[in-house]
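User: Here's a chain of 410 residues. Predict its fold as tokens.
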Amino acid sequence: MVERSEYLEQLKQWKDEQVIKVVTGIRRCGKSTLLKQYQQGLKASGIPDAQIISVNFEELEYEDLLDYKKLYAYIKERLVDGQPTYIFLDEIQKVPSFEKVVDSLYVKPDVDIYITGSNAYMLSGDLATLLTGRYVEIKMLPLSFREFLSVSNMEPDKGFAEYMKTGGLPYLAVMDRTPEKVETYLEGIYNTVIVRDIEDRQARRETDPSKRRITDIALLKTIAKYLASVVGSPVSIRSITDYLTSNGRKVSANTVSDYVEALAESFIFYPVERFDIVGKQLLKTNKKYYIVDLGLRNHILPRRNYDLGFSLENIVYFELLRRGCRVNMGKLGSTEVDFIAEKQGAYTYYQVTADMTAEATFDREMRPLEHIQDNYEKIILTADRLTVGNYNGIKVKYLPDWLLENENNL
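Assistant: Prediction complete.
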């Protein structure tokens, strides 16, 4: 098993606190393994098995517990009087009305609850209403480049090329990777997310008549393929709708919006909003979408040459999320800054480019940062080593080196 030490530390920090720990993330990013590792840590610290209740709703032996009343009875009769009981409910979104179980357990003494889910919709609706202020969300992502190297035992440059190609899903980092096996594994995950996780989402939305059902899987995959092809480029619901219409698929903007929302809630695509650097406000027009794993992007798209710069942007975006930043793309007059990363009130501006050696490219990447009038740090990340340096306070860094820096050194 790949140990996700950073996420384990987050769980340990919240141990025995009166909040529900909710671990979310795309399927197969390591949520179940994380819970198992945390339980092993509890046992190693002296917690007896009787005080740990663990249910994985992916496993057939717990099928009867998909009824929330049976689940509650199962857990209630196993609570240990006068001692803390640690409850782990893995892929809880499969249980209709599970929030009633979680809420009822939460108010009991000496109960510490941990749940996971593969769809962001589980944290909306009734659960959010019931548990407002009573849960913390730990957002889990595939392996960082640092983690990928640590488990694959590859040297950085070769490892970075492999990371770009196969992505960071934990099992891929440790398996005997051949192109055929990687493709088969990614296809299985992608189809499962598109079909099964969307179905789980559907079941939870049945009581909301304002929401449309996601019934056309072919349309969903077409939209996913389009978003994968425009990673790093600003798009709107209207532009996606126009693209589909121009390719012979008549569909309403409202339907497209619902399908894009479904892809985001399943943690495949992450939307990034634009931020006016001068006005210090979010802009509602056009977003960028980044895909949670480049291996999945390579699977979704037909084999061709990808824009290296946008793939690098994708990696940088998720690394900034891992480092605890709130991330937007920046608008400065008629120019744009790839990312504005905000953490604890401080900003860092980032440009990302494949190669800075051409003078025109160097000037283009520098210009937006030079025009920013504040004193926050400005960094350009590139895949070439030749231009690394400090240019009037603007730092140019070799991207793989930056990925391996201490997370506090943004």
